[in-house]
TrEMBL record:
<protein>
    <recommendedName>
        <fullName>Repeat domain-containing protein</fullName>
    </recommendedName>
</protein>
<dbReference type="InterPro" id="IPR028994">
    <property type="entry name" value="Integrin_alpha_N"/>
</dbReference>
Length: 443
């Protein structure tokens, strides 16, 4: 697989994992957080009695915040109601949700809401104004990029819609830590190639507009992924990964300060430009999101882009420095692993990929001050899993010291350190434990 395809497939796969779900669950699995088999069966039977004729339970396409059946307090009485999403695709193509409340120890339907479009792309529940009642946020899908975003609240035992608008995306978080949940709505003008991000607060049964900002785009899909999370230890931001063409991209970082939306960078494209998409992710699992770009190893200046073994280089946002280096990764997407390079190797190494008689390996080399290759530092070698016992015996007989890194369904990965060179060159020092720790299987 060439590298353009590798990066594209990985980026789309990550985006799907973060934003999409398969609709292949049993009715029992559709119930979110069931407490017992008996309760689960009672809830399932109660819902089925009230579903519109010919309809079935359905999971929102983006199911990271809501399932088909959800227990949530929407009237503020400290007792959970049931919100169940349904679809009917045989005759009327109807979608919507029903609300059930427990009255005298049995579940009764108190309202039904018919949706718009062909599918439910997103649903979530937030107490938007801190009154003890959770609002219902739903995105109705018409099959295009723009979707109908609706917000519902409970009033006098009936569901009332308090907002309805055509937007591509929605995110909810207290971005500026003022105790109020901020509602972010994303739209995209494909003619002007502009993403508009608007922010609202929910005040007295309506959305109050706070601010909006326009963001440059240069491709028909507008943006590929959005993350709301910590940009630093004390500050949250919105990370927007934006394609610039058929394969390049950049990441925009937005803050909310004094009720104004602000860019983190004066020129985000030049700061976060990615020849192939890398995007934003918490790469080091410290709960702070990093921005990734691609770095070309030394020695590949004359190579075609598809032949370069790119390194993913990750940066944290820093209020003073702008972007601060965190870590570099080497990925082999075909074989399914990532290797985090030791930080003391930065700017002092290069690498080469080899495949001789279907025996694959990656070799990391030290560089002289003139940037010429000097010595091998580390080799990661691949062995067919079926042959590993025989190969392991051979390595032991040859007294070759290796580091077992891990294995997947078809391949065993081992590493060889050039200890003689490392003993003489402390700048490249790394121990076996760190090599093993820095190797991570993707699947």
């Amino acid at each position: 697989m060439n590298k353009i395809l590798k990066f594209s497939v990985l980026f789309m796969s990550i985006t799907f994992v973060l934003t999409g779900c398969y609709k292949l669950s049993t009715p029992e699995q559709l119930i979110e957080k069931p407490k017992s088999k008996v309760e689960k069966e009672i809830i399932k039977e109660s819902i089925e009695k009230f579903l519109p004729q010919g309809s079935n339970l359905t999971i929102p396409l983006d199911c990271k915040e809501a399932g088909a059946i959800n227990k949530v307090d929407i009237d503020g009485d400290n007792q959970d109601e049931i919100v169940a999403f349904y679809e009917e695709q045989e005759k009327n193509f109807e979608i919507g949700f029903i609300i059930l409340k427990k009255i005298n120890n049995s579940w009764k339907m108190i309202d039904l809401v018919k949706g718009e479009g062909f599918d439910i792309s997103y649903a979530s529940f937030y107490d938007l104004n801190k009154d003890g009642k959770s609002e219902i946020i739903v995105s109705w899908d018409y099959g295009d990029y723009a979707k109908i975003k609706s917000i519902y609240t409970m009033k006098q035992s009936k569901i009332k819609r308090i907002f309805n608008g055509k937007y591509r995306g929605i995110e909810i978080d207290d971005l500026n830590n003022d105790g109020k949940l901020d509602i972010f709505l994303f739209s995209y003008d494909s003619k002007r190639l502009v993403i508009t991000l608007s922010v609202y607060n929910y005040v007295i049964d309506k959305l109050k507009f706070i601010d909006k900002i326009n963001i440059q785009a240069n491709y028909e899909i507008g943006y590929s992924n959005i993350k709301v999370g910590k940009a630093s230890e004390n500050k949250k931001g919105i990370f927007i990964d934006i394609p610039l063409g058929s394969h390049s991209a950049y990441t925009q970082l937005i803050f909310l300060e004094n009720n104004k939306l602000k860019n983190a960078f004066k020129d985000s494209i030049s700061k976060t430009y990615q020849i192939y998409p890398v995007g934003s992710n918490d790469i080091d699992s410290d709960k702070v999101i990093e921005i990734g770009v691609l770095t070309q190893p030394i020695g590949y200046e004359e190579e075609a882009l598809v032949n370069i073994p790119w390194l993913n280089t990750w940066y944290k946002w820093d209020e003073k420095e702008g972007l601060r280096f965190v870590v570099e990764n080497y990925y082999d997407y075909d074989e399914g692993y990532r290797f985090d390079l030791p930080q003391n190797w930065k700017d002092k190494f290069t690498l080469k990929e080899y495949n001789i008689n279907n025996q694959k390996r990656v070799v990391f080399y030290s560089l002289e001050k003139s940037k010429n290759i000097k010595n091998e530092i580390l080799t990661i070698e691949y062995f067919e899993k079926n042959n590993w016992k025989k190969e392991e015996k051979k390595l032991n007989e040859q007294n070759k010291k290796f580091i077992y890194l891990g294995e997947n369904k078809k391949t065993v990965f081992v590493a060889f350190l050039n200890n003689k060179y490392l003993d003489r060159n402390k700048d490249f020092y790394v121990d076996r434990e760190n090599i093993h720790k820095n190797f991570k299987l993707l699947y």
